[in-house]
Amino acid sequence: VQLQASGGGLVQAGDSLRLSCAASGGTFSRLGMGWFRQAPGSKRELVAAISRSGMTTYYSDSVKGRFTVSRDGAKKTVYLQMNSLKPEDTAVYFCAADPTVITSTHPSQHQYQYYGPGTLVTVSS
Asked: Which of 35, 77, 99, 123 is the most exposed place for a label (fewest CB within 10 A)?
């Protein structure tokens, strides 16, 4: 499975941005997907995840209510809509895939095996 994130950029606090992650090389409908971020000097953080059906999602407390994860099976793409961005959201964002999920796997329990290169999001104050 190959993953490629895009859509990052420089925005101001309060702005919105939508990231995309295109998947190839696997059966997209069988993949649990997640979005991570990592800021300089910080640990990698899982910010959002979505089940392979798209019916169940997970958000970290730091982004809950501001970010929305979704997926489009026809385009084999996962999205991260980020609203009300804050300077502390500045990080490299990257997507990941778990090919081992079953229908009942909650997104918070994904075991990611594939990671794509990131896209930089910079939020100025």
From this structure: 99
Residue 77: strand pairing partners = 22, 72
Task: Report whether 63 contacts 47 (CB < 8 A).
Answer: yes
Model confidence over 44-70: pLDDT tens digits?
999 999 999 999 999 999 999 999 999
The owner of tokens 């950029």 is 9
**Whose structure tokens read 């993949």?**
31
Largest interatomic CA distance in the chain: 42
Please answer whether residues 112 and 59 qualify as being in contact, where contact means their C-beta atoms are separated by less than 8 angstroms.
Answer: no
Residue type, 35: W
